[in-house]
Specification:
By secondary structure, the protein is α+β, with helices and mostly antiparallel strands. It contains eight helices and four strands, in the order E-H-E-H-H-H-H-H-H-E-E-H. Strands 2-1-3-4 form a four-stranded mixed beta sheet, with helices on both faces. Strand 1, helix 1 and strand 2 form a beta-alpha-beta unit. The longest helix has 17 residues. It is globular and about 50 Å long.
Length: about 170
């Protein structure tokens, strides 16, 4: 007789990120490594925290939400973060361009940026981030611990892995 109770949910790593942020670009290798190590045993959740000093960051957060809706959230985030200088230079046109390069519906991206359909999601992330003490990006939250990667990336992946391993062990116990 098989146990039909649902498996407990995977631990969640909230990644407070901003797509015009050089420090977030530096964090990409850590995020790739975490995804490779844990796969679907750890849920990586993109959370938006656009900073006022980056004038295209709010639009980029909305575009990332559209990419998530179209099924390529992380691929889009990585593509934009990998080319921060182009985003600085080209602005919203670049966000639509990247969507097209990834085979997403670029016209829908353009419309989403105009009609603001994802603004509430981005605003809610910012409000929650401020409420829990996020001040810069990247910031990670896992197992109730907030790790600030905006100050230094040094050793952060190891700390995230230690917490994730502990949460997974507790889950399996």
């Amino acid at each position: 007789m098989s146990d039909s109770s649902p498996a407990p949910a995977a631990p969640v790593l909230d990644v407070w990120c901003e797509l015009q942020c050089p420090d977030c670009r530096s964090a990409l290798d850590d995020l790739r490594a975490l995804r490779a190590r844990y796969g679907d045993r750890l849920e990586l959740r993109l959370r938006h925290f656009p900073l006022d000093k980056h004038r295209h960051a709010f639009a980029a957060a909305q575009a990332a939400e559209e990419a998530l809706e179209q099924g390529q959230g992380w691929a889009y985030v990585e593509a934009v973060l990998g080319r921060v200088a182009e985003l600085d230079r080209k602005g919203e046109a670049f966000l639509v361009e990247v969507a097209g390069e990834l085979g997403l519906d670029a016209e829908e991206f353009d419309t989403a940026l105009i009609d603001g359909r994802h603004i509430l999601v981005v605003d809610a992330d910012v409000a929650e981030g401020k409420a829990i003490g996020v001040t810069g990006t990247p910031t990670y939250v896992i197992g109730g611990e907030r790790l600030d990667g905006g100050r230094s990336q040094e050793g952060l992946r190891g700390r995230v892995e230690a917490i994730a391993d502990r949460l997974l062990a507790e889950r399996e116990a």
